Each structure stands twice: as structure tokens, then as C-alpha cells.
Amino acid sequence: MTTYLIPLILVGALTSAGVYLLLERSLTRMLLGLLLIGNAVNLLILMVGGPSGNPPVRGRTSNGETTTADPLAQGMILTAIVISMGIAAFVLALAYRSFRLTTAEEVGNDPEDTRVSRLSAMDATPVDEDRPPEPDTGKDTDLPDELDALPGQEGSR
């Protein structure tokens, strides 16, 4: 089986550009990155599917080919196209909702992730064994915090 270098380079370029765009904070760039990665995977499946040939229908020939094309790769690509369009619709809905709520398209830092990263940075510092450990000042109750309930629903519990 011969491998063609140009489609492999194209798959690599599409994948690397897609990963680069996926790592951005803008939701539209994330969407473009997902679509590029989806197209790269479709091209890779098409290349792995084998050489072209007759249609996979009994009695049909195409340009005197002697082999039959593999229908599994075609079915997988069609399924991948449907899945990537579903993901694109979901990311577009997220971008629309984010823009309507914050009038910004950028994904910000999550306050809980920031708090946890600060705690882990504090845990990494060496502790004196002579000094007693500091008490935990974080809230550890079953009562709802400001992030647990929607505004206006404090008394509903």
C-alpha cells in the first residue's frame, strides 16, 4: 500500500492549527479549532480507508477498477460529520449564551479553580513542624453559598 505524503502533511497541519485555535480563550476560535480537527480526522479516515475502487454495490463498476471501495470508512466519515455538526451547534449555543449574559465572548477564569490553585500553591510551601497548623478558614457547611443558588431563590430551600 502506498502512502501519500501530501495528505499526511495536510492532516498534520489541520490538526496542529485546530489544537492551536482550541487553546484560545475566544469561543469562536475554539469552534474553528474543533471544526479543523474534525476535518483532519475525516481526511485521516479517508486515507486509512484504502484506495478507491468500484462502488460497494453488487454489479456496479467504475472505470474498470478491479477492487471494491471500503464502505466502512465512508460510513464512519458520515457519522463523524454529523457528530462534528452537533458539537458545532452546541459550541455556538454556548457562545450565544455567554455573549447574552456577559456581552463578552472570552472564557474567563473560574473563581473556584482560582481558589483551588491558590490553596495548592500554599500547600506546596514548606511548613514549620514547631508551629501548629493554621485552622481551615474555608466554608465547609451544607448551607448554600453565593454560588450555589440563583439570585432570588435564597428562601426556597
From TrEMBL:
<dbReference type="Pfam" id="PF00420">
    <property type="entry name" value="Oxidored_q2"/>
</dbReference>
<keyword id="KW-1133">Transmembrane helix</keyword>
<feature type="transmembrane region" description="Helical">
    <location>
        <begin position="72"/>
        <end position="96"/>
    </location>
</feature>
<feature type="region of interest" description="Disordered">
    <location>
        <begin position="108"/>
        <end position="157"/>
    </location>
</feature>
<feature type="transmembrane region" description="Helical">
    <location>
        <begin position="30"/>
        <end position="52"/>
    </location>
</feature>
<dbReference type="InterPro" id="IPR050601">
    <property type="entry name" value="CPA3_antiporter_subunitC"/>
</dbReference>
<dbReference type="GO" id="GO:0005886">
    <property type="term" value="C:plasma membrane"/>
</dbReference>
<comment type="similarity">
    <text>Belongs to the CPA3 antiporters (TC 2.A.63) subunit C family.</text>
</comment>
<protein>
    <submittedName>
        <fullName>Na(+)/H(+) antiporter subunit C</fullName>
    </submittedName>
</protein>
<feature type="transmembrane region" description="Helical">
    <location>
        <begin position="6"/>
        <end position="23"/>
    </location>
</feature>
<dbReference type="InterPro" id="IPR039428">
    <property type="entry name" value="NUOK/Mnh_C1-like"/>
</dbReference>
<keyword id="KW-0472">Membrane</keyword>
<keyword id="KW-1003">Cell membrane</keyword>
<feature type="compositionally biased region" description="Basic and acidic residues">
    <location>
        <begin position="128"/>
        <end position="142"/>
    </location>
</feature>
<keyword id="KW-0812">Transmembrane</keyword>
